[in-house]
Amino acid sequence: MGHDEEHERFDRDIEAMGIRVKDANLMKVRADVFDEVTLIALYKLVHKKLISVIGGPISTGKEANVFYGEHDGRGIAIKIYRIQTANFKAMTEYLAGDRRFASVRGSRKGIIFAWTKKEYSNLARAHDVGIPVPEPLAFDRNILLMEFLGEGETPYPQLRNAEIEDYGAVYRQILDYVERLYREARLVHADLSEYNILYHEKPYLIDMGQAVTPDHPRAPVFLIRDIKNLNRYFSRYCDVPDEEEVLRAIAGTGHREP
After folding, report:
1. Buried b (16+ CB within 10 A) or exposed e, 28-44
2. What value does the mean pLDDT of the chain take?
3. Of 98, 140, 191, 226, which residue is the catalytic one?
4. What is the pTM of this model?
5. Sign of torsion, CA 203 207 209 215?
6. What average pLDDT score do residues 98-114 get?
7. Catalytic site residue 191?
8. Known active-site residue 207
9. Please, what CATH class does the domain formed by 3-151 belong to?
10. Is the confidence at residue 147, as pLDDT, over 70?
């Protein structure tokens, strides 16, 4: 089947499913993002009446594209992991030491499906203990549906682009999240930076696919890296304690190289 036929089928099927497409640009990314596996996952989620509108892209990256969507008038984020371009090797390393996913082996598709499930699971753990993250709603294959964090169809800004009055207070808030994530949700974010925190009246943690449990062999390294990233960013705007001190407060230990 040629690309044009595929596109026509895509348009027809999306219409047949009763989905409104709000953004003409969506059609430009069809071939790149909506491969056959993704379309099957999309059909499944639509069939379960979990998506009613697909809007424009919120963010695009090598790993995943995130689109605005709606479900019964509520804004949702539709995150689609890209099977062709996602960093398969890095994903495999994060999964390998995680007891929950240690048995996952094999194909690129299999790893990416496990990664999608892992992000859903990590978000659920964080959300269940009250940490501000997008609430996960559903997943199928390489698509994750979650609460949309934004106003209208505009996402909240990343921390680095946000207007913040009291950096010290926000820094302390984020450290509190990191501690609760570690102690209550039993997770280390492992990719925390000013890019993976949104801000609107308070900070929100996003992009939790790579988060690992504290018994992951590299969890201590990931935790110190998260703290270093936060200190690097916030030290421009406010006083930050020594990272060893922060680590002790969160994990009750000093830093030990594995």
Report:
1. ebbeebbbeebbebbee
2. 89
3. 191
4. 0.89
5. negative
6. 84
7. yes
8. yes
9. alpha beta
10. yes
